[in-house]
Write a structure and sequence with these properties.
The complex is a heterodimer. Chain A contains 22 helices and no strands. Chain A is mostly helical. In chain A, helix 1 runs antiparallel to helix 2, helix 1 runs antiparallel to helix 15 and helix 6 runs antiparallel to helix 7. Chain A is globular. Chain B is an all-alpha fold. Chain B is about 80% helix and about 0% strand. The two termini of chain B are about 10 Å apart. The chains are: A mainly alpha, B mainly alpha. The interface between A and B is large, with 59 and 63 residues.
C-alpha cells in the first residue's frame, strides 16, 4: 500500500474512534502512533510518543495558553461583565430592542478581557437574562442574542481559538489578536443592527427599557475603567510590540487578579476555583495538542497535505470557489463537532492548501474564527446554546436555537465582507510596532 | 456486580490522588503567573530579569499539564464527540465505552512506558537546563507519572462501563 492509502485509512480510523466517543487527543495520538509505526517502523513510533509529551509540555511559547485562560477566569469573577452591561444599558437600553443590543455590546466588552466564548455567554447570561425577562422580552430573542453575542469572545482578542490556530500554523499570536479587533467590532455592529431591524419591524419582541438622564449616562462610564485599562495594557502592549504574547498573558492574568481584589470580589473559593478551572481546561487543551502533534507526524509521512494542495491548485478551479466549499464544509462539520476538535483535525490538511492558493494566513485565521463562532450556535451541537439553556431553565432548547437563527446572517455577511475587503482584518496588523 | 466493586476500589484511590495532584497544579499555575509577571516588570522597569525565568516557566507548565490530566478525566473535561453515540441505547454506549476506554488506557500505558525509557536515557546522558543547570530527567518522570495516573483513571472508566452494562 502506498502512503496516501494508509493515510486515508488512518483518517477514517480516527473518525471511527471519535464517533465512538474516544477522547479526541487520545484518538489522534493512537492513530498517529499506529500510522507512524506502519509507515516508518515501530521503534521510532514508540520513541515519538515518549518524547512528544515532554517536548510540548516544556515549550515556553505555550505558557500563553494557561495564562490567558486564567485571565478570563479571574475576569469572570471580577464583576467586570456586570459593570460593562450596566453602562451600555444606560446608554442604549431605551431604544427598541435596546436591552438585547446592550447585551451584545457588553458581550463585546467582556470579550476584550476574556478569550472564551463560553465564559462570555455564561457571564452575560446570568447578568442580562433577568433584565430582559423583567422587560418582557421575547424568549427567543433574549436567549438567542446572548448565545450569539457570547461568540464574540473568540473574535475580539484575547482569543483561545486564535492562540491554538497560531500554534498549529506557526503564525504570530500577537498579529492574529490585532487582526481580530476590527472584524470583532464589525460583527458586533452587525449584530446590533440585526436586533434593531427585528425590534423595529416587530416591537413586541423587544420593548424599550428605562430612560436615563445624560448625567447618569456619563456617570456610568466610570465603571468601565477596569475593562479599558486591562484591554489597553494587554492588547495595546501586544500591538506596540512592548509585550510578547506570554508576557501579555501573564500581565493580563495578574491585572485581572488585582482588579478582582480591588473590586472586593476575591474570595478563597473564587481563587481556588479560577485556578482549578484553568488547570482543567489546560489539561484538556494540551491532551489534544499532544495528540495533534503525534498525528501530525504521521500525516506528514503520508504526503496527503502536499498532494491535496497540489490537487487544489491543479484542478483549475477559481480559488474563491474552493474557499467557498471549504467554508461550507466547516459550517456543516461545525454542526456536529466542537470547534477546537474541528480545528486540530482539519488544519494540518486545510492550511497548506489554503496558503498554496495564495490566501493570507492571518486573514484565514480570522475567517476560521468566524466559522468557529457559527459552530457554537448551530444545531444539533451548539455549545453556547447549551450554556444558555443551562441558565434559562424555563426556555426550551428549541426556542434558543430559533432565537440564534437571525444571527447567522450577520456572521455570513461578515465573512463575505472579509473576502471582498481583506483589509478589514489585515490593515490594523500592518500598522503594528515591532 | 464484581466489576462495580473493582471500579469502586480503584476509584477510591485513583481519584483522590489525581485530585491532590490537580491541587498541586493550581499552586504551580499561580506561581507561574507571579514568576512571569515579576520577570516582565523586572526587565521592563528595572532592566533586571529573573535568572532562569524561561526554563522555570517551562518546567512549571509541564507540571501544570501532567498533574491535571487525570483529574480532568475524572471530571470528564477531555473533549469527546458525543453526537453519534447519543443516537444509541445506553447498553450499546456502555459496550463501546468499555472498548474505547480500555484502548485509551493501553495507549496511556504505552506513553508512560516510553517516557520512562526516555527519562532513563536523559538521566544517563546527564542533560541539564541552560541557565540553572537543573537536571532534566526528573521532569520526564513527571510526564510518566501524569500519564500513568491518567491510564489508571481510564481503567476506572473501563470498569464503570462494564458495571453500566450489567445494570442496563
Amino acid at each position: 500500500m502506498n502512503p496516501v492509502t494508509i493515510g486515508v485509512l488512518g483518517i477514517l480510523l480516527l473518525f471511527l474512534f471519535l464517533a465512538l466517543r474516544m477522547q479526541i487527543g487520545l484518538g489522534m495520538a493512537l492513530v498517529g502512533f499506529l500510522g507512524f509505526a506502519v509507515l516508518v517502523s515501530l521503534k521510532p513510533a514508540f520513541i515519538l510518543v515518549g518524547m512528544e509529551p515532554y517536548k510540548i509540555g516544556t515549550n515556553y511559547g505555550l505558557t500563553v495558553i494557561p495564562l490567558f485562560i486564567l485571565m478570563g477566569q479571574f475576569a469572570s469573577y471580577s464583576n467586570m461583565g456586570r459593570e460593562i452591561y450596566g453602562t451600555v444599558y444606560r446608554w442604549i437600553g431605551s431604544l427598541p430592542g435596546g436591552l438585547a443590543m446592550a447585551t451584545i455590546g457588553a458581550c463585546g466588552g467582556f470579550a476584550a478581557i476574556s478569550g472564551s466564548s463560553l465564559a462570555a455567554a455564561a457571564t452575560m447570561g446570568m447578568v442580562a437574562l433577568p433584565e430582559m425577562k423583567r422587560f418582557k422580552y421575547d424568549d427567543a430573542l433574549a436567549t438567542g442574542c446572548i448565545a450569539a453575542g457570547g461568540t464574540l469572545g473568540i473574535l475580539i482578542p484575547p482569543s483561545t481559538v486564535m492562540i491554538i490556530y497560531g500554534i498549529l500554523t506557526q503564525q504570530p499570536i500577537a498579529t492574529l489578536f490585532v487582526a481580530g479587533v476590527i472584524p470583532g467590532a464589525l460583527l458586533m455592529g452587525l449584530f446590533i443592527m440585526t436586533i434593531f431591524f427585528m425590534a423595529k419591524s416587530r416591537p413586541e419582541l423587544g420593548p424599550p427599557g428605562p430612560k436615563f438622564t445624560i448625567r447618569e449616562k456619563i456617570h456610568s462610564l466610570k465603571d468601565t475603567w477596569s475593562i479599558f485599562s486591562l484591554f489597553l495594557l494587554v492588547i495595546g502592549g501586544l500591538y506596540t510590540g512592548w509585550f510578547t504574547p506570554t508576557e501579555a498573558a501573564a500581565v493580563g492574568a495578574f491585572g485581572a487578579f488585582v482588579i478582582t481584589i480591588l473590586k472586593k470580589k476575591l474570595t478563597w473559593e473564587n481563587l481556588t476555583d479560577s485556578l482549578a478551572q484553568t488547570a482543567s481546561t489546560t489539561a484538556m487543551v494540551f491532551l489534544i495538542l499532544i495528540g495533534a502533534h503525534v498525528f501530525g507526524y504521521f500525516l506528514t509521512v503520508t504526503y496527503i497535505p502536499d498532494q491535496l494542495s497540489v490537487l487544489a491548485t491543479e484542478a483549475g478551479l477559481n480559488r474563491y470557489v474552493v474557499f467557498g466549499m471549504l467554508v461550507l464544509a466547516y459550517v456543516v462539520l461545525g454542526c456536529f463537532m466542537e470547534g477546537l476538535a474541528m480545528m486540530v483535525l482539519t488544519i494540518p490538511i486545510v492550511f497548506p492548501m489554503v496558503i498554496n492558493m495564495g490566501f493570507d494566513p492571518i486573514w484565514f485565521g480570522i475567517i476560521l474564527t468566524l466559522v468557529m463562532e457559527m459552530s457554537l450556535i448551530t444545531p444539533p451541537v451548539g455549545i453556547n446554546v447549551f450554556i444558555i439553556s443551562g441558565i434559562a431553565k424555563d426556555v426550551p432548547m428549541y426556542t434558543i436555537f430559533r432565537g440564534v437563527i437571525p444571527f447567522w446572517f450577520p456572521m455570513l455577511v461578515c465573512i463575505i465582507l472579509l473576502c471582498v475587503f481583506p483589509q478589514i482584518a489585515l490593515w490594523l496588523p500592518a500598522t503594528m510596532g515591532r | 456486580m464484581e466489576s462495580t466493586g473493582k471500579s469502586r476500589i480503584l476509584e477510591g484511590w485513583v481519584y483522590p490522588i489525581s485530585r491532590m495532584m490537580s491541587k498541586g497544579a493550581s499552586v504551580v499555575l499561580f506561581l507561574m503567573m507571579l514568576l512571569t509577571v515579576s520577570d516582565v516588570v523586572g526587565r521592563k522597569l528595572f532592566s533586571h530579569s529573573v535568572m532562569g525565568a524561561v526554563e522555570l516557566s517551562e518546567f512549571m507548565l509541564l507540571i501544570l499539564i501532567f498533574f491535571s490530566l487525570a483529574h480532568g478525566e475524572a471530571k470528564n473535561a477531555h473533549v469527546k464527540v458525543d453526537f453519534v453515540m447519543g443516537l444509541f441505547s445506553p447498553r450499546v454506549r456502555a459496550v463501546v465505552d468499555m472498548v474505547t476506554q480500555f484502548i485509551g488506557c493501553l495507549l496511556c500505558g504505552l506513553i508512560t512506558w516510553s517516557s520512562l525509557v526516555y527519562a532513563g536515557k536523559m538521566r544517563a546522558a546527564g542533560e541539564v537546563s541552560q541557565d540553572l543547570w537543573l537536571p532534566k530527567y526528573p521532569f520526564v518522570y513527571v510526564v510518566a507519572l501524569g500519564c500513568g495516573i491518567l491510564a489508571l483513571a481510564l481503567l476506572v472508566k473501563f470498569f464503570s462501563a462494564i458495571a453500566r452494562m450489567g445494570e442496563s
